[in-house]
Amino acid sequence: MTLGTRVQGLRHARGLTLQRLADAAEVSVSMLSSVERGRKAPTVLVLARIADGLGVPLADLVAEPEDSRVVVRRAADQDTVEEPGGWRRTVLTPVVPGVNFEWIRTTLPPGCDAGTFPAYAPGSHEFVVVESGTLRLTLGGRTVELDAGDSAYFAADVAHGYANPGREPCAYHVAALIMRPRAAQPR
Length: 187
Description:
The structure is a single chain. The protein is an alpha+beta fold. The chain contains five helices and ten strands. The strands form two sheets. The protein has a six-stranded antiparallel sheet, with no helix packed on it. The radius of gyration is 18 Å and the shape is elongated. The two termini are 27 Å apart.
């Protein structure tokens, strides 16, 4: 796998546009695009900035994986984000360039509404399993309440929201296959 393919795969896996990654990495969009297409060999400084923008160590960006069929993500390397409102989400799965799958564990404190997430591209899917507590899942205009041990599936091409209406913390897992819209092809 080429460096440009790795950068592009990691960018897509994180749902970043060229502009957003360029801003985060403090490099120009044209430089980033040229790196992804293999048209420019970036300096170590530019590579370090891109790695920082992607949130990966520089070594992970430039090293060839020994066996790309097996990717391990240790618990210590999982990304946990503390969101406004006191809720937390942890991305459990490794990031694999070109694979649009994530497994996330989320914890909502009592009475917390994590908000509504926009619809993904057609062909996107989410599976939800409640580990503990009660989860209110809102899909478009429909609401479903799930208790510990319950699971649900939905086509994720609709706006969807997660909330904990209960008095106990709610922990749940989301396995998501998120399709990305194809970029327009030049004519």
